[in-house]
Write a structure and sequence with these properties.
This is 2'-O-ribose RNA methyltransferase SPB1 homolog. It is built from 36 helices and eleven strands. By secondary structure, it is of the alpha/beta class. Strand 4, helix 5 and strand 5 form a beta-alpha-beta unit. It binds S-adenosylmethionine. S-adenosylmethionine binds next to helix 3.
């Protein structure tokens, strides 16, 4: 038996439920028809289909999908069905004549190829009753089917496994050539439903009405129920006794004619019965009503427990049932029905044996159910706990009881890698440091002292205030360290991502190509070699330069070189666009909003380990001291420059850090050449890149069409996204924000259409080669024309010709000149060397003008050859 499926709650939401949702079917039952049709293929050839009990319309959807277009599909149900394309539906009870009339009016005198029936009354409390009316419903649908089906047609119906099943199948067999019962995989195992596919309708001229009369078809119901009484229901009652803790399904329903839930048997019946176990499993109470029974109740063997147990058997456990069975045996001996033959232990073993027989399959299934339920409950519990913790944390955050760092970061997240312990356990680290008395010393930068004191166990007395201050600084330092580490990890992650990103690689390759082309900013008087070194740029070249500068300090022409270097490094107070652009190439280290990289660098270099390393501190100080005006310095005032601004001079040691980083994101900025002004560049950029996004186009159109004013647009710019302070936020966060935290600008259809049109126009433009060829042609034509005109002038100048002759000659020349470049290609006729032309030498019959003989295979073979060559080349 397959894995048990839950019939309640989420157990219903199985694979087919999800599939139905995905594929737009109204009910998961749609897959039952799909699977039935896959097996018997009755829909593809059907031209007319009637679906009885069709709501909500899953089967109708399938029929409409699989049946040929223009076929007639009719759906009926008690409840109205939402419209489905190509399907006619109405609400009616299929057991009534009105329904029949409605169908008739719909299909006219057509005959249906397929009649479907998936009807099910509400299966609930009175199971026997339901099963019966289900069978009745089947019979009613069969009645309609035989009326509307065409000869050879198919009737598909759902039948519940019940005592009526065989009778129904018998009737089907009388009316159809082939009858097969099947359970499609999408039908739940726990469901008692089964589908009967009746094919090849015999369409007899006369059908005995008894075939369709429930009274006749199901008349031996009682007999069959009695016959099955010893079957599953007997097992059920036995199981009730041996596993009273488990609730059992009544697959067989209630006994025929006995619809009461409460059952009572006299004690005498229980004592005298040969099947006491069935009685214990089936009844609620054993009563002591007759005198004899009342006497038994007073006997010693009938203890108070036994009497109490007899009052309500439904609440008893296994032990109580055993006690009752023991009591029965004892009483039987007492009243002389039995001689003492068996020991009660034996009975127990017998009982156990019987138990094992009881529905072993069901036990397995129930065990599985139990295990599944337990696992589900455990998972649910865990989920609930996790949610509770999260909710609490959020509440605490809202009450400002904790920092947001708590959320989302697992304390022992492996992805954070090494160092997370001290990262997240600042308190612990602080405590251990304080214990060692090294915190304040660490804060004072006395690393050596701290190292020494590592071995020293004696605690050092410290001023309380100092300690608090120290711990604050320490905390800050740690936090900065943590941020630096996180930034490092994030950078590594980003570079890993980029490495994987093919687009990025292409971009980088292009950039590299651009960089190679870039020859740097040339000083008019700098020599060839210097230009090269500048052009190449890069760390190595700079190192070489530095070394050379250092060496050249002693050389004779040092002053000259120094001057060149200084000129190259120092910004001038030149207001020309070139100077402005160059100043842009230099990173403004003192920008009031520190960039992520500079902040990271600051944090990195703020670590104690860098303290005392020559030059670094100075650089840092200089970085801090530099101000915005730093770029507007007169070239003629080098001393001032050095005093006021921190651009390193060639003589200082700090020229190690004379880095002129290139702006990474926009190579175009670098191409600002002398003479161009900012506005022009801006305009060029707009014409090249402007209005490339649908949002930009929408805004532009709104502005042009006066749907929005400029002020409105400016006002729109002040939204919750525009005033976010980005200061001090980590780069990963800012990256994320830039991707996802931005206003959702409206995009109109018109804007999209305009953009598409623009793109189409771009696509329609010829490629460079074609354009060049066209231009060449035009140029040649122009030359020819000029030549012709010169000749015409010559003709005009001659006196040997009459005016008429001149005119004729000139016209000829001009015609020739005008037609230059428009030479019509001589058409070559292709003659395939097959049939009559095969093996022919010389001109084939009926072919005039230029021709070429081709082999029919030649083209294909040539292509194949080229393809192979290409593939080989690649390899
Ligand atoms: C299981 S649903 C049918 C699902 C349908 N095959 C589908 O795929 O959407 C059973 C339907 O039978 C209908 N039904 C039950 N008794 C009926 C009756 N006497 N006449 C018409 N419809 C009936 C119910 O209203 C219910 O919608």
């Amino acid at each position: 038996m397959g894995k048990a499926q839950k019939k309640t709650g989420k157990g219903r939401l199985d694979k087919y439920y999800k599939l139905a949702k995905e594929q737009g079917y109204r009910a998961r039952s749609a897959f039952k028809l799909i699977q039935l049709n896959k097996k018997y293929a009755f829909l593809e050839s059907a031209r007319c289909c009637i679906d009885l009990c069709a709501a909500p319309g899953g089967w109708l959807q399938v029929a409409s999908k699989y049946m040929p277009v223009n076929s007639v599909i009719v759906g009926v149900d008690l409840v109205p069905i939402k419209p489905i394309p190509r399907v006619v539906t109405f609400a009616a009870d299929i057991t009534t004549p009105q329904c029949r009339n409605l169908i008739r009016s719909e299909v006219k005198d057509w005959k249906a190829d397929v009649v479907l029936h998936d009807g099910a009354p509400n299966v609930g409390t009175a199971w026997v009753q339901d099963a019966y009316s289900q069978s009745e419903l089947v019979l009613m649908s069969l009645k309609l089917a035989v009326e509307f089906l065409a000869r050879g047609g198919t009737f598909v119906t759902k039948v519940f496994r019940s005592v009526d099943y065989n009778n129904l199948v018998w009737v089907f067999n009388q009316l159809f050539g082939k009858v097969e019962a099947t359970k499609p995989p999408s039908s739940r195992n726990v469901s008692a439903e089964i589908f009967v596919v009746c094919r090849d309708f015999l369409a007899p001229k006369y059908i005995d009405p008894k075939f369709l009369d429930p009274k006749h078809v199901f008349k031996d119901l009682a007999a069959s129920t009695a016959a099955t009484d010893k079957g599953t229901s007997a097992n059920n009652t036995q199981a009730n006794v041996f596993h009273p803790e488990k609730s059992r399904r009544k697959r067989d329903g209630y006994d025929d004619g006995d619809y009461t839930l409460f059952k009572k048997v006299p004690a005498s019946e229980f004592i005298r019965s040969n099947d006491p176990i069935s009685i214990l499993g089936a009844v609620n109470k054993i009563s002591f009503e007759t005198d004899e029974e009342k006497e038994w109740a007073t006997l010693d063997v009938t203890s108070a427990d036994v009497r109490a147990n007899c009052e309500d058997l439904k609440v008893l456990g296994k032990g109580d049932f055993k006690a009752l069975l023991k009591w029965r045996l004892a009483l039987r001996e007492e009243i002389g029905l039995d001689v003492k033959t068996k020991e009660t232990e034996e009975l127990t073993t017998e009982v156990v044996d019987v138990t094992e027989e009881v529905d072993e399959e069901q036990q397995i299934q129930e065990e599985l159910e139990r295990l599944n339920a337990e696992a589900a409950a455990r998972a649910k519990r865990d989920r609930r706990r996790a949610n509770e913790v999260k909710t609490k944390t959020i509440q605490r955050m809202q009450l400002q009881m904790t920092a947001p760092l708590d959320i989302g970061l697992e304390q022992h997240d492996a992805s954070l890698g090494v160092g997370q312990e001290d990262v997240f356990d600042l308190g612990g680290a602080e405590k251990s440091l304080r214990k060692q008395g090294g915190l304040s010393r660490l804060a004072n930068g006395n690393l050596d002292e701290l190292d020494e004191s590592d071995d020293d166990e004696a605690p050092v007395e410290e001023d309380q205030d100092d300690e608090a201050l120290d711990s604050e600084e320490e905390r800050e330092r740690k936090a900065q360290q943590l941020e630096a580490e996180l930034d490092g990890l994030y950078d590594a992650y980003q570079s890993r991502l980029r490495e994987r990103d093919a687009k990025y690689k292409v971009k980088e390759a292009r950039k590299d190509a651009n960089r190679e082309e870039w020859t740097g900013i040339r000083e008019p008087d700098s020599d060839e070699e210097d230009e090269e070194s500048e052009a190449d740029g890069g760390w190595d070249k700079m190192e070489q330069n530095k070394a050379r500068v250092g060496e050249s300090d002693d050389s004779d022409d040092s002053d000259e070189e120094e001057e060149v270097q200084r000129k190259r490094r120092r910004p001038t107070k030149d207001n020309s666009p070139r100077a402005a652009k160059r100043s842009r190439l230099v990173t403004k280290l003192d920008d009031s909003k520190p960039t992520a990289a500079s902040r990271t660098a600051q944090v990195w270099f703020s670590q104690d380990i860098f303290k005392g390393i020559g030059g670094l501190d100075d650089v840092e100080d200089e970085v801090m001291a530099q101000d915005d005006d730093g770029m507007d310095v007169d070239e003629d005032e080098p001393e001032d420059l050095e005093d006021e601004h921190d651009m390193p001079s060639p003589d200082s040691d700090d020229d190690d850090f004379d880095i002129v980083p290139q702006e990474p994101d926009d190579a175009d900025d670098m191409w600002d050449v002398e003479g161009e002004n900012e506005d022009e560049i801006k305009q060029a950029r707009i014409s090249k890149y402007g209005l490339v996004t649908p949002e930009a186009m929408t805004l532009a159109q709104q502005l042009v069409n006066r749907e929005k004013t400029r002020t409105q647009m400016i006002n729109d710019g002040f939204n919750r996204y525009s005033l976010n302070s980005k200061e001090g936020l980590p780069s990963w966060f800012l990256d994320d924000e830039s991707k996802f935290y931005k206003p959702n600008l409206p995009v109109t259809k018109e804007a999209m259409a305009a953009l598409r049109a623009k793109q189409r126009a771009l696509d329609a433009r010829p490629i460079k080669k074609v354009a060049e060829a066209k231009a060449r042609k035009k140029f040649k034509a122009h030359q020819q024309l000029e030549k012709a005109m010169k000749k015409a002038e010559g003709v005009n100048a001659t006196s040997d010709m009459s005016e008429k002759e001149k005119a004729q000659q000139i016209e000829k020349l001009m015609r020739k000149g005008m037609s230059a470049g428009k030479k019509a290609k001589k058409e070559i006729k292709v003659v395939v060397a097959k049939g009559a032309h095969k093996g022919l030498k010389g001109r084939p019959k009926g072919v005039k003008g230029r021709y070429t003989m081709v082999d029919s295979r030649m083209k294909k073979e040539l292509r194949a050859k080229k393809r192979k060559e290409k593939a080989n080349k690649k390899r």
